[in-house]
Amino acid sequence: MIISVTDNLEGKIEPLSYSDAAKVAALIRQSTQDANRGEYTPFELEKLNAFATPEKIQDEVSSGYLVMLSNDTGDLIGCAMVVRSGKNLVIKTIDVKTNYSRKGYGSLLYNRCEKRLKEVGLNEIEVEIPKFPKSEMFYKKHGFVKTGNPTREDLYFAMFKYL
């Protein structure tokens, strides 16, 4: 496995190529589609994935943190992205291709994000996740607790963890 990181959390400007941003956007869209088991309508899925365009990924990463995981042939199989939300840093997404899931790659990506967030001095992590049961189970496994109860109209719900 090959790990590549784009880290702009502390003011450095390390650009993300359009090609890499397009791969990340495609992975996020496909992962979201694959995870949907009726939680979202096609219209809601499109709203959920509105940020998953190459241009928006490039913009988010310009002041954020992106970890990309590729297999030995260079195909992107997973990614994790930390973005700025006001003055806070939040985990925007952690996605792994379906045929690579349940093999520890999501945890590997998460651990890289947690380590980096500790390095910049954070003592808590927030994440907004889609209402997919597997997403909630993933974050619970990593010590997060759900904050609030999403309604049918909510696209996301928040989870929180002290470091």
Describe this structure in words.
The structure is a single chain. The protein has 163 residues and is α+β, with helices and mostly antiparallel strands. It has a single domain, classed as Gcn5-related N-acetyltransferase (GNAT) (Aminopeptidase). The protein contains five helices and seven strands; from the N terminus they run βαααβββαβαββ. The longest helix is centred in the N-terminal third of the chain and has 18 residues. The two termini are 27 Å apart.
Strand order of the largest sheet: 1-2-3-4-5-7-6
The amount of beta strand, in percent, is: 25-35%
Tally of DSSP β-strands = 7
Termini Cα gap: 27 Å
Summarize the structure.
This protein is of the alpha+beta class and about 160 residues long. It is built from five helices and seven strands; from the N terminus they run E-H-H-H-E-E-E-H-E-H-E-E. It is globular, with a radius of gyration of 15 Å.
Topology:
Layout: E1 2-7, H1 18-35, H2 42-48, H3 54-61, E2 65-70, E3 76-85, E4 88-96, H4 105-119, E5 124-130, H5 133-141, E6 145-147, E7 156-162
Parallel strand pairs: 4-5
Antiparallel strand pairs: 1-2, 2-3, 3-4, 5-7, 6-7
Key descriptive features of the protein:
163 residues; alpha+beta; 5 helices
